[in-house]
Request: fold
Amino acid sequence: MSGEESHAYVLVAIQAGKEQEFANEVVSKGLILDSEVEKVDFVHGDFDFIVILRGTTYEIDRRILEVRKLPYVQSTETLIPFEMLHWDDISAPFTQPKIIDRGLRSLELELIADFSHPIVLYSTKGGCTRKVAVEIASELNCPCIEINAHSDSSTVNLDNFDLVLVGTGIYQTRPNADMVRFLQNANLDGNKQFALFLTWYRLGKSDKSVFNKIDSILEARGKKLADGYFECLGDSPKGHPNVEELNAARKWVSKIAKKS
Reply:
């Protein structure tokens, strides 16, 4: 069977916090562009990425060895799609399953559906929201992406994420303009849940104003924010967010993830 073309799915676990470095390494080595590697996606659980391979058994084995040699890779698990023949159709002693090609896209969607996972999006000016975002992403072991003036659906793909944690600072009762623009224009299709976290100076009721603003944007897109949101001081000169506040952010998102 070494000459027959088939597909394989390689689950990859990497060192914590090295998601971006791993992705950069894959791109720099040209693996994604190589015809034998169809796609690389984030997953959630015991593994961090799924690498979708195509080719002969020999080619797939060679490519898996290359993936294992990449920096930060701790372990891999290889999945080969197959279909068992029905017993009534077997006229000779059964020796092995028949490898079939049911179409890469359908297999990919079925597999990734089993690895539903969150993503953290944040916008920041002074860096306070970034600290909370990184802490939340670390708790969930998920991607953490800064939304800036250049972010859109071509640079931030949310297709395979079902829980989106949105973070912003509060600026004179308003959320970060980059986050507002992104949520108004990004592709939010699919069954996604959204939750909000904020950093601010705790002036007046601007946190509720920002919650309502983000919620109204999502409602216009057919989505909705979770009722509870996380907020903490964003005052770097005075040491905020501090350790206690970051721990509180972890506890909050842990509850959100369980509800989701």
